[in-house]
Design brief:
alpha+beta; Threonyl-tRNA Synthetase, Chain A, domain 2; 10-stranded mixed beta sheet; 5-stranded antiparallel beta sheet; about 40% helix; binds adenosine-5'-triphosphate; ATP-binding; transmembrane helix; FtsK_alpha; cell cycle; DNA-binding
């Protein structure tokens, strides 16, 4: 909420027109920004905006409607006499005729809706409009059936027919078109009204009716979710959470903000109340049966299966033995047991935070200090308002007509001195406004808890499984982001700045919102401490990777996985994995003749690397090449990278990586140079740590300042316990054991293996990386010797060319056998230590076996059609 301050100050706001996400004006968040904080013009600094909280407003409306329902019922149902009763009857029956009898029910329904779902203002508006259609139509039909009495014949007959509404709507239509047309017209209008109330497009009527039938009979058929409406009807169940998640059809994401954009924001007003107070339960999710879709009933499902709609572990009569780890057929995904029911974690596992403060005494003190500085230096400028975020407050300053803006910016040090904070950031101007923004840390900063972000309307607006809670912007609005739209993100910041906390929030968001069938994770944690808490969650596609060398291999696996997804897309003629998944679920994708393949939808694959620097130290070239390939192509394959580093220097975040990772999140960096590496602009060096960040989603020109969401270890534990209790992970064998696949001679060596081995031996034993030496000793031409040297460079046996000088030899003579083995495509032995360290994880992987078969998958993937359209824009 923006506050106006100062004597002659101009009012700040209304902020509805402020399309500024944080401190930046980018495409992202523009259209979706719904900040409704009101500025108040006022005389004193102590004035605050007086708009009631939306909850209270909704409650007020609800109670008013309830009272009205009671009053109308008192007269229309219970016949209370007297002048007051007569007055009520005259108004109700006069307006609606005999249909007024139903008015208390309608009022009661609307009142309950408004109070239960204050955040659904638009849906409530829709219901009211729909009811309007129904009421007008019913009144008109009643009026026609009563013989179209006119008020000129006396008001009694009108009251006993369709009231004034019936008269006004029915009479002209009947006069113009006759009853034969008027009656079907109003029947149709009533039906249309019902469709609006229930948010049912005409083409979904059969599905809806089927859904109602299923719900009444307790029948669950595969694919019924596609008919779940985009409306707000929730089907109830006897499940643990008491509600069954209503799922959207694949088309349900078209027009969905989080789906359309990488990041978007909720209203700051909303954030100022406790979002969770009006929270629905986060829902249950059924992992569908593989029935009819080729689920082969893969093993590795633990004993903790849950009966649908119950939290009681269900004992399987005959647990299946682990399958022999067959190589995974191309394009197939590891599967969970065919009829497993999977419940998403309860929202209540994530705690609620305190309500957001929109103003505090600390803010008023800063306003006084700023005003003091301007007076002291004789600058004609005034603080006209401020918007308080959780960590910083942005004070808005307007300068007088003949005052240079630079006068304020040049006062930056004096301002920092006056407010006793080194982290003053000046925005000149605030994008989209004729005002200067001065961001100053709050002396009384607030923690943004992940639970609140995930319960915000911004997060609830979509059921996309890749939407994560990012935090709050500088105006106090919740920020959520769709990882699938990033489509890759670089997270950087000095140690202790909040990177790991962000990654925790991200993974926890995924666990809260997505089933393992929807999103699979590859977690790379060379530091070995940050992500261990997630070991064993069913969303993992391979055990957490801690060895940098294995991580590099895992990235290569991701490239292969991407390629195979691409092959599938090409083979079956789809542009995006979402199209493909939708078609698979619709049964439109049939295996090619003669193939026994089980075709299954692909889950999104989220690859999280929590220290890129460690990987780049081991195999810079391979890692860079894999990242480049993944980032260039993976979007359409549903594969998304999150690269985190505390060393955002150019040797870690190379130009190639930067060019291919479009979204950036910078926590406090230790230098301006680091900020430039991450964001291509300064700013991150001025952040104040502990989750304070600049977020630059893809397509955004200016970064928005956000306070990252915080989730405690005990919350993460509760969430992981919940998911682990339900399913054991089913690992893909080929991620953890790619070495076997690599035992072939690399393509680029071709027929030159022997020559290359000799060249390597020569170079390493002589420690002399000279091309002309190779020419002489191997009796080859210049071109061939040059090629051999390039191959040696690509295997990191020699360094890059340094013109006419000999190249550096990077392998010691003692390590020659390992280097030769590497060229031959055999195990190198170089990393035996690493592999030994990772041993238990591998055994774990092998022990769980691999599964073939297809996921059935429920329709929560976004529409690929929409995605394809957007990509061509
Ligand atoms: N979003 C946040 N809200 C509140 N406090 C935070 C937040 N993020 C981080 N902190 C505080 O900062 C400390 C360090 O954060 P974190 O471990 O995430 O830093 P990091 O950047 O990952 O550091 P490293 O690179 O050393 O792992 C946390 O222990 C916590 O106290």
């Amino acid at each position: 909420m923006a506050h106006a301050v100062g004597g002659a100050a101009r009012a700040v706001g209304p902020r509805d027109q402020d399309t500024t996400p944080g401190d930046g004006e980018g495409d992202v968040g523009k259209a979706s920004r719904a900040t409704t904080a009101k500025g108040t013009s006022g005389d004193t600094a102590s004035k605050t905006g007086g708009a009631p909280e939306p909850d209270h407003r909704a409650d007020g409306v609800g109670f008013f409607l309830l009272a009205l329902a009671v009053v109308v019922a008192a007269r229309e149902w219970w016949g209370i006499d007297g002048a007051f009763g007569d007055g009520v009857h005259a108004v109700v029956a006069g307006t609606l005729g005999v249909a007024g009898v139903a008015l208390p029910v309608l009022l009661l329904w609307i009142a309950l809706r408004v109070m239960r779902h204050p955040e659904r203002a638009r849906a409530n508006g829709r219901v009211t409009i729909g009811l309007g259609f129904v009421v007008v139509s019913v009144c008109s039909l009643v009026h026609i059936s009563a013989g179209l009495p006119s008020p000129t014949d006396g008001f009694g007959p009108v009251q006993d027919a369709g009231g004034v509404i019936g008269y006004l709507f029915a009479t002209p239509v009947v006069t113009g078109l006759t009853e034969w047309f008027a009656v079907p017209l109003y029947v149709l209008a009533a039906f249309f009204g019902l469709l609006i109330v229930t948010a049912t497009p005409v083409h979904r009527i059969p599905g809806r009716l089927l859904g109602v039938y299923d719900r009444l009979t307790g029948n669950h058929r595969p694919g019924d979710t596609d008919d779940a409406g985009a409306g707000d009807a929730t089907a109830s169940s006897t499940g643990q959470s008491g509600r069954r998640r209503k799922r959207k059809g694949v088309r349900g994401y078209v027009g969905d903000e989080a789906f359309e954009k990488a990041a978007y924001l909720a209203s700051a007003d909303e954030a100022s109340g406790s979002a969770s107070g009006r929270a629905d339960k986060l829902t249950t999710q059924r992992i569908p049966t593989g029935e009819g879709k080729g689920g082969t009933g893969a093993p590795a499902i633990g004993p903790g299966l849950l009966d649908e709609g119950s939290a009681t572990p269900r004992k399987k009569s005959a647990p299946k033995p682990p399958a022999t780890p067959d190589p995974m057929p191309r394009g197939e995904q590891p599967m969970f047991d065919g009829d497993t029911v999977y419940l998403l974690p309860e929202e209540s596992l994530l705690v609620e935070g305190p309500p957001h403060k929109t103003r505090s005494a600390a803010n008023d003190r800063v306003v006084e200090s700023l005003t003091g500085v301007f007076e002291q230096f004789g600058v004609d400028a005034q603080v006209t308002g401020f918007t308080r975020g959780p960590t910083v407050t942005r004070y808005e300053v307007e300068v007088g007509p003949k005052t240079k803006v630079e006068r304020i910016t040049s006062l930056s040090n004096n301002i920092a001195y006056a407010v006793a904070s080194a982290d003053v950031r000046i925005l000149s101007p605030i994008p989209g406004k004729s005002a200067i923004g001065i961001e100053i840390p709050n002396a009384d900063r607030e923690t943004v808890v992940l639970g609140d972000v995930l319960r915000s309307s911004a997060a609830r607006r979509t059921e996309h499984p890749m939407v994560m809670g990012v935090g709050k912007d500088v105006e106090g609005g919740y920020v959520v982001a769709n990882l699938a739209k990033m489509p890759h993100i670089l997270v950087a910041g000095a140690t202790g700045a909040g990177k790991s906390s962000f990654i925790n929030s991200m993974i926890t968001s995924v666990l809260m919102r997505a089933t393992p069938e929807q999103v699979r994770l590859v977690l790379v944690d060379p530091k070995r401490v940050e992500l261990t808490i997630y070991e064993g969650i069913p969303h993992l596609i391979t055990p957490i990777i801690t060895s940098p060398k294995k991580a590099a291999e895992a990235l290569e696996w991701v490239v292969r996985e991407m390629d195979s997804r691409y092959d599938d897309l090409a083979e079956f003629g789809y542009k995006h994995i979402d199209d493909f998944n939708a078609a698979v679920r619709a049964g439109k994708v049939k295996p090619l003749p003669g193939s026994e393949r089980k075709i299954a939808p692909y889950p999104y694959l989220l690859v999280v690397v929590d220290e890129l620097a460690d990987l780049m130290m081991v195999a810079p070239r391979d890692v860079e090449a894999s990242i480049q390939r993944i980032t260039q192509l993976a979007r359409a394959a549903g594969i998304h990278l999150v690269l985190a580093t505390q060393r955002p220097s150019v040797d870690v975040v190379t130009g190639l990586i930067k060019a291919n990772v479009p979204s950036r999140l910078a926590f406090a960096t230790s230098s301006l140079a680091d900020s430039r590496v991450v964001l291509d602009q300064p700013g991150a060096e001025k952040l104040i740590g502990q989750g304070d960040a600049l977020f630059l989603p893809m397509g955004s020109a200016k970064p928005m300042r956000v306070q990252g969401a915080w989730v405690t270890e005990s919350e993460v534990e509760a969430v992981t316990e919940h998911v682990k209790a339900q399913l054991k992970p089913v690992y893909r064998e080929d991620v953890a054991a790619p070495a076997a696949a690599k035992k072939q001679i690399d393509e680029d060596i071709g027929d030159d293996l022997d020559l290359l081995l000799q060249a390597a031996e020569l170079v390493v034993t002589t420690q002399f990386g000279s091309t002309s030496m190779l020419q002489r000793k191997l009796r080859v031409g210049f071109a061939k010797a040059g090629r051999l040297m390039d191959l040696l460079e690509s295997r990191e046996i020699v360094g890059p060319s340094e013109g006419s000088k000999a190249r550096d030899v990077l392998v010691a003579a003692d390590d020659l056998p390992a280097a030769l083995a590497l060229i031959r495509g055999e195990s190198t032995g170089l990393y035996d230590q690493d592999e030994a360290d990772d041993g238990p994880g591998d055994e774990d992987a092998a022990g769980t076996g691999s599964g073939g078969g297809g996921t059935d998958g429920e329709g929560r993937y976004p529409s690929g059609v929409a995605m394809a359209e957007r990509e061509t824009r």
